[in-house]
Amino acid sequence: MPAVSEFRASEAATPRHDWTRSEVEALLDLPFPELLFRAAGVHRLNFDPAEVQVSTLLSVKTGGCPEDCAYCPQAQRYDTGVDAQKLMETEAVMEKARAAKAAGASRFCMGAAWRSPKDRDIPKVAAMIAGVKSLGLETCATLGMLTGSQAQALKDAGLDYYNHNIDTDPEHYGSIIRTRELQDRFDTLEHVRDAGLKTCCGGIVGMGETRRQRAGFLQTLATMPAHPDSVPINRLVQVEGTPLHGTAELDPFEFVRTIAVARILMPKSMVRLSAGREQMSDELQALCFSAGANSIFHGEKLLTTGNPDVAHDQALFDRLGLRAMQVTVDAEGHDHGGTVHADIVDQPGRCVA
Ligand code: SAM
Ligand code: DTB
Ligand code: SF4
């Protein structure tokens, strides 16, 4: 273990891709105030800590999924009361995207309950992406596993980000999902990167994993060929009918620790405080922002479950002095996201296209 001063300097400097599990565990084990102090320092060196990127989710194809993800209300095999719906029409998606933009979102994320899209689905999704992009929003999609040519077609349609999560520690993965391997997910992420798309990749905590397994989950994210541009940390939303319903609740401080360590390991990534906010107090969310979370899902619904209402989030931002990150999309469709901390000289303008 390096000396404290050495360790702090290296955390904030160039992102590392060689974190060991024991180093990550040591961070998770730090006294809580020390961990928050370190994470907040890394956050400030890389971002304006008052800015939070805001995305809105829409389920464009709901339920009826053949996979067995033990947390998911959209898996056909679990009786969760979710009504399966077919792929939405482009105009209906654009209507929702206009409303999301008017409510302050800068990115619109379209989710489909597929194991993987069929090639015949791609032109329909491409039309949605092009439509949403034309409104001046950043675009994100999460459609399951992709082939290389599917990823390229989505990129060509104007997709900015692709969300595909590893979900949990490789050791724990097999007790949560049996219908596809973790390697399948790595393959999709490779196709996404190769197509020039930005990656959004994280997972879920509170699924009965140990702290050591949370370390393994974070280590896996931080040692991928490139850190994900965006790292969603979801707290399990327990849905009746799913196998994980009734799992012992995770200590909220463990959730904050997970956010803080994600911030330290992936200093230049957006760390998203994702699913589970509706079940969190304002104080817990404030701790997450203080620990380095700098993006959220906004709008009253995630995919099928609830999210805090817009007025509540606005009031929380006002109380905490936070503001939504502005993103402008220029004539070439390049997006310019957020203001970075004035001290950062190696990311001028952050033209991310
Ligand atoms: N079907 C695609 C897939 O699995 O990649 C895309 C949609 S899937 C719903 C996207 C992500 O939502 C999952 O990888 C998981 O991390 C998250 N998720 C799903 N159900 C959840 C729940 N009950 N609580 C927290 N996160 C959840
Ligand atoms: C992610 O990591 N979390 C979002 C988004 N990516 C697609 C989804 C959360 C889903 C929560 C359960 C639901 O609403 O169905
Ligand atoms: Fe299907 Fe995705 Fe839900 Fe798994 S997480 S059951 S793949 S919709």
Automatic annotation (TrEMBL):
EC number of the protein: 2.8.1.6
Cofactor: how and how many bound: Binds 1 [4Fe-4S] cluster. The cluster is coordinated with 3 cysteines and an exchangeable S-adenosyl-L-methionine.
GO MF terms held by the record: biotin synthase activity
Positions with a binding annotation for [4Fe-4S] cluster: 65, 69, 72
Protein's pathway: Cofactor biosynthesis; biotin biosynthesis; biotin from 7,8-diaminononanoate: step 2/2
Binding site for [2Fe-2S] cluster: 109, 140, 200, 272
Domain of life: Bacteria
Catalyses which reaction(s): (4R,5S)-dethiobiotin + (sulfur carrier)-SH + 2 reduced [2Fe-2S]-[ferredoxin] + 2 S-adenosyl-L-methionine = (sulfur carrier)-H + biotin + 2 5'-deoxyadenosine + 2 L-methionine + 2 oxidized [2Fe-2S]-[ferredoxin]
Stored InterPro entries: Aldolase_TIM, BATS_dom, Biotin_synth/BioAB, Biotin_synthase, Elp3/MiaA/NifB-like_rSAM, rSAM, rSAM_sf
The protein's required cofactors: [4Fe-4S] cluster; [2Fe-2S] cluster
One Pfam family cited in the UniProt record for this chain: BATS
Protein family according to the UniProt entry: Belongs to the radical SAM superfamily. Biotin synthase family.
Function: Catalyzes the conversion of dethiobiotin (DTB) to biotin by the insertion of a sulfur atom into dethiobiotin via a radical-based mechanism.
Assembly and interaction partners: Homodimer.
UniProt-listed PANTHER family: BIOTIN SYNTHASE (PTHR22976), BIOTIN SYNTHASE, MITOCHONDRIAL (PTHR22976:SF2)
HAMAP family, alphabetized: BioB
Entry protein name: Biotin synthase
Organism of provenance: Luteimonas colneyensis
